[in-house]
Specification:
Order of helices and strands: HEEEEEEEHHEEEEHEE
CATH class: Mainly Beta
Number of helices: 4
CATH topology: Jelly Rolls
Mean pLDDT: 91
Low-confidence stretches: 1-14
Number of domains: 1
Oligomer: single chain
Radius of gyration: 17 Å
Strand order of the largest sheet: 2-5-12-7-8-10-9
Largest sheet: 7 strands, mixed
Distance between the termini: 30 Å
Structural class: alpha+beta
Shape: globular
Strand content: 35-45%
Helix content: 10-25%
């Protein structure tokens, strides 16, 4: 009975959350030589301004968190793009996109030190992209026009302003999107995209936690 009580206590202990800090570990990945967003890395938060521009900022996840299967964060938008079609390349502006990048466990160590371009181009990469933009039912799974079959969009918020807390079941969403279980979560990316509508985005992400 003593051992059974110990086992039950271990099972019911809360899963500790690991915060992903917005620090110098983030590196910008441009999609065009002449287009770049402005990112303000402030520790627990990151500000984003996109003025007719697009780019991504990317960070490798510590190995201790490669098995994370859930995430939470706060995000806010004070200037928003209009709703666009997120499934069509060239018209798919969005306020914010949060990328969770998974790879085969066997490939994780070799890719973790690579660039964003190398990680996304690897055959084993599968990515969930939580998007604030468009005008879709919350939680809808949409095919991305970029790297079909390797990037899947989760519609989180329609194009608008506001301030929200999100709780994402990465494992369940990955299963819905790819019909399989996720591998190792080795990287996270954030982008804002306003170049197609030549508009302006002012936004922030904060308190990004993995579990």
């Amino acid at each position: 009975m003593k051992y059974l009580s110990l086992i039950l206590a271990l099972i019911t202990q809360p899963v500790l959350a690991a915060e992903i800090m917005f620090d110098s570990g983030w590196k910008e990945q441009g999609f065009s030589l002449f287009s770049s967003n402005d990112y303000a890395l402030n520790g627990h938060s990151m500000g984003v301004v996109s003025d007719g521009s697009v780019s991504m900022i990317f960070k490798v996840v510590p190995e201790a968190d490669w098995q994370a299967r859930a995430a939470s964060w706060q995000w806010s938008v004070s200037r928003s793009v209009v709703a666009t079609d997120l499934t069509v390349k060239g018209v798919d502006d969005r306020n914010l996109a949060l990328y969770f990048v998974f790879v085969d466990t066997q490939s994780a160590a070799g890719l973790a030190s690579g660039s964003a371009r190398r990680v996304f181009n690897d055959d084993s990469t599968r990515t969930l992209v939580y998007v604030w933009g468009g005008d879709y039912p919350r939680g809808a799974v949409l095919p991305s026009p970029f790297q079909p079959g390797k990037l899947m969009t989760i519609a989180s918020r329609p194009a608008s302003t506001g301030n929200f807390t999100e709780n994402a079941d990465l494992a369940a969403d990955f299963q819905r999107a790819y019909s399989t279980a996720p591998g190792a979560l080795i990287a996270i990316g954030v982008s804002a995209d306003s170049d197609d509508t030549d508009s302006y985005i002012a936004a922030q992400i904060s308190n990004l936690l993995l579990q």
